[in-house]
User: Fold this.
Amino acid sequence: MKGIEIMFLAIGGLAGTFLRYGITKSPLLLGVLPVNVLIVNIVGSFILGGFSVLSQQWNLDDKYMLLVAIGFCGGLTTMSSFALETSNLIDNKQYSLMAINIITNVGLSLGSIFGGRALLSVIVGALR
Assistant:
């Protein structure tokens, strides 16, 4: 890995990490279901979906994949926090909330990938 690639990865990761921290520092609950991690996973997935379209359409250099997809979106989204929240719900025998947490995080993150792709496909198509 070249120095410029490391720099792109680090800048993207740092920006995503700071944004995640800003969103998740104060617990946001929907009843007893934590939604901060859900929000960052949905937003990060949407950005990644949109970026994947731009990357293909504009034939972007791989260093931008390091910046946005791996660095920024990787720093923003968080599988480990999702797993911890889910295990805490299991520990507290809140199985219904555990199922809701899994379904919403996985389902809405996948939906956001497709939504980001669809939106950017329309925008890129309109710019042609």
Remarks:
- The first strand starts at residue 29 and ends at 30.
